[in-house]
Amino acid sequence: MIDDNRFEVFLFSAAVFGVAVGIGAIFDRPELKSVTKITYTKDIKPLVMKRCMPCHDGSLPWPPNFTKYKSAFSHHKRMEFRAWKRRTMPPGGVYITDDERTLIKEWSDQGAPE
Ligand code: HEC
């Protein structure tokens, strides 16, 4: 009798574990993650204020101003190219994470929405 109960508990735990692993697998799929909409206002502006300042604050005609959506939008392909593809921005020594580089690329891929 006791053994039977233990077996049921075991089966129940195994089922819970299986469901948890299943859910984990869904949330680990990168193709589902990238469905999240990335916007300039929510994601890119805070990143730019952290990693591209003071150089891209628009105080000079060049380099381009990334603190305004319109200007960032018109340079989004170059932002992707320099920060994600070529990794030449920010210039040597200025800290940025790989996730932040990828965020710029995905924002650009999504058409750089505001
Ligand atoms: C320490 C200053 C500095 C920081 C920080 C910096 N940049 Fe730049 N950036 C420059 C300078 C100077 C230029 C112009 C010279 C050049 O193109 O290399 C430039 C040019 C650019 C250009 C235009 C050139 C082109 O190829 O069209 C892009 C795009 C760019 N940076 C992206 C970024 C991004 C994105 C960040 C932040 C993640 C960043 N930069 C951070 C100094 C900086």
Question: Helical content, roughly?
Answer: 55-70%
Q: Based on DSSP secondary structure assignment, what is the total number of beta strands?
A: 0
Query: What fraction of the residues are assigned to beta strands by DSSP?
Result: under 5%
Structural class: mainly alpha
- Main sheet properties: none
Counting H and I runs of at least 4 residues, what is the number of helices? 6
Low-confidence stretches: none
Structural commentary:
- With 114 residues, the protein is mainly alpha-helical.
- The longest helix is centred in the N-terminal third of the chain and has 26 residues.
- The termini are far apart.
- The protein folds into 2 domains: 31 residues; 70 residues, no CATH class.
What keyword list fits this structure?
mainly alpha, 2 domains, 114 residues
In short:
The chain has helices spanning 2-27, 30-33, 40-51, 69-74, 76-85, 98-109. By secondary structure, it is mostly helical. The model has no long low-confidence stretch (mean pLDDT 86).
Please render the helix and strand layout as text.
Blueprint: H1 2-27, H2 30-33, H3 40-51, H4 69-74, H5 76-85, H6 98-109
Helix pairs in contact: 3-6, 5-6
Bound molecules: heme C.
Heme C is lined by residues 51-52, 55-56, 63-64, 75, 78-79, 82-83, 89-91, 94, 96.
